[in-house]
Structure formats: C-alpha cells, structure tokens
Prior knowledge:
Structural class: mainly alpha
Strand order of the largest sheet: 1-2
Helix content: 55-70%
Largest sheet: 2 strands, antiparallel
Shape: globular
Amino acid sequence: MDDDDQTRKVRPAGLVVRRMRHERGWPPRELITAIAEASRRSSGLRQTITPEQLSCIEERNEPIAYDTLCLVAAGLDCDPVDILG
Length: 85
C-alpha cells in the first residue's frame, strides 16, 4: 500500500462488520485477534485495531483509513468491498 492508502478515508458498513462477526460467534476481542493473526500471516507484522476503533466502526460507521479497512476485511476473511458502506 502506498501513503495515499494510509490517509484516504473510507466509510465501512458497521452493521455488516458486526453481522459477519456475530455469524462467526466472535466477541469483539476475537475479531481483533483474528485481524492481528491475518496481518501476521500476510506481512509478518502483527497489526490490529483497538476495541474503541472496532466500536466506532460497528456502531457509528466512522470513516477509517483504507489500510484499516483492509485489516478488518482480512480478519473477517472477506474482500474489503464486502464491508464498505
């Protein structure tokens, strides 16, 4: 990803993220762990989001950086487009 991906904001579909997490039977912490594991597998780095970020995504559809959207999608094992608002 280039610098533009790190600063460009997108609006995720918070209810979709929550639904996908619930379909897996995961509490928020488990999704955060899945994001970290997916990141470690793909890049060797353990990147994730905070519980507060996840809450903002799921409850308020707050805009996030595109690279954060990609992290969440990797944790949910889906395409980033699937969780865009």
